[in-house]
Amino acid sequence: MENGKIFDIMKYSIxxxxxxxxxxxxxxxxxxxxxxxxxxxxRFEQELMYWPDRCIGCGQCLEVCPNGxxxxxxxxxxxLRDKCFACGACSTVCHAGVRELVAKTMSVSDVMAEIEKDLxxxxxxxxxxxxxxxxxxxxxxxxxxxxxxxxxxEIHTAVETCGYVKLxxxxxxxxYVDLFLYDLKLMDTKKHQEFTGAPNELILGNLRWLAxxxxxxxxxxxxxxxxxxxxxxxxxxxxxVASLRRVTxxxxxxxxxxxxDKYRRLGRRYLLPGIQPPDNERMxxxxxxxxQFGLNIKIGG
Length: 301
What we know:
Elements: E1 3-13, E2 21-26, E3 48-50, H1 60-64, E4 70-73, E5 76-79, H2 89-93, E6 99-101, E7 104-107, H3 108-116, H4 119-125, E8 128-132, H5 140-152, E9 156-161, H6 167-174, E10 179-183, H7 189-196, H8 201-213, E11 217-223, H9 231-242, E12 249-254, H10 260-265, H11 280-291, E13 296-299
Parallel strand pairs: 2-8, 8-9, 9-10, 10-11, 11-12, 12-13
Antiparallel strand pairs: 1-2, 1-7, 3-6, 4-5
Helix pairs in contact: 3-5, 5-6, 9-11
């Protein structure tokens, strides 16, 4: 049986598909969107998040670190990230949660055990499980095995994808997914490359295939002010989605910067510090513009 790398399992979600859901977040993503609110999901390798303000000065991390990534001077502890290999030794002895490993390796049965804890909520609300990330389809064999187990137990499944994946992987899982939540960001491929790290031809091509072969696809668009909320991009996006077979639902998701502090915890720089979330009036205006293409538009997930 395959194992997968998971960085979070969130219970009682209501924004990632119908009903009350469990969202399983896979680690690793082929895109690096500058507005990403889950930066800990981007890299496939293990990482360590650091909260220096939680430190109580016990010194146990200094004693167990095998790489010299923790130093102490005058009773003050310093974390040297460039020497850290994310082995996790410090996190196992730190009771204050100063250092925490981002992800853990889980088996199919491990993930299913968490999913099945909430069966009663799925049944009562019409919910289920959503596989997100990062990019869940980056771990296609593991994802397929979990999807098959969910199908056996009649659990509704949704997969949120950025679409920048191999078509073969998408085809492999398609029959076991009840709903695809498909992200679109920018229609201009050069601008897409600039802000996400990759062009968009593969993403658009995979969505065309999915629209022809899967009955339940919802397109989701994060609205990032000054980046993809201009009239040209929205018009191109609306025209493209309207041309897709059987795809009529489009969700627009207002940008938020709630995850910006995570970048500091990971030793990275947040690239969009000046961007402000769009207000309700702006979101309603965008909704009206996209409705002109005959699409069913919803604000939020």
